[in-house]
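Revision sheet: structure tokens.
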Amino acid sequence: MDSLVLIDSSQLTSESFEKLPDQIMYPYAEQYDLQKHIMSGTQQIICSIIHFLKNQLSDGSLTQDGCESLEVAIQCLESAYELSEKDLSDIKVPLLEILKTHATAPLDIAESQEATPEQKTEAEKFKSDGNNYMKTGKYLEALDCYTKAIKLDGKNAVYYCNRAASFSKLNNHQAAIEDCKNALKIDSTYSKAYGRLGLAYTSLKDHIKAKASYIKALELEPDNESYKNNLLLTEEMLANTSNASPNFDIGTLLANPALMTMATQMLSNPGMQNMMSTIMSGNVSPGSQGMDALLQAGQHLAQHIQSVNPELVDQLRRQLNNSDGSEVPTPEQEPGNEEL
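Predicted:
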């Protein structure tokens, strides 16, 4: 009978966990950060690039200086993206295979042949595999599966739409747009394709086209809360864009006629004239008293504007907020990655 091993799970580290015998490893799996073994789509691409560069080192076609430069590049990539040896050894799709698969001329949907029943069955399997890869964050593998499904059955709108989702996860939003358009060529009533088209346009900050896409999606599926929320957010983005001053500066502020009118009225006040004369003449005492005088002048101006023209204050506040480079909320991703 095997001896009983007592382990304080609170003391487990990634290194000690990996040294545990197989028979006692899995009861502690939930307490271990298994997410570190699930690479992002970007990391998968980088691993494929590193794998390609290492092959270049071994084929003897580079000079010594070239090899040294590649070795440095490989080390930098491994460090920058925090890749382990396990990550680098788990290359599902080589870089050249990616290029062969996806860097081809666009498929002419009208000329694609009708798939046989056997091809449709195989394509559905690839789609199912792609959906599973999407759920685990393996977007590159998902992309490969959807592409294989399309090659087998090029007239199925779902495959293009699902591949668009994987392209979006890999930040290739233009490719996602093209796939959504291909899906809509096949099925012009496919609301999910319009929804994903809107998300892709939003990622490229083309809010006008995003709005049109969400409107079309809602026409086809009026009760979809995700489309409703995304349309509202996109309209908000468009409103903020139209009201924003991209290069807001003091010149913009002084060009506001309402503000200049208020400033003129303030400066005609005898008390304010005396205060400003003291400040401009340099007779303000140094230290906190001088600063107090400046603050007092500013407070008087702000209070006067607020009391006489509160709308102007709100307008200035919006201008300042729009000029600080803050991000507008991003439309939500639709729930789930599979087409159901």
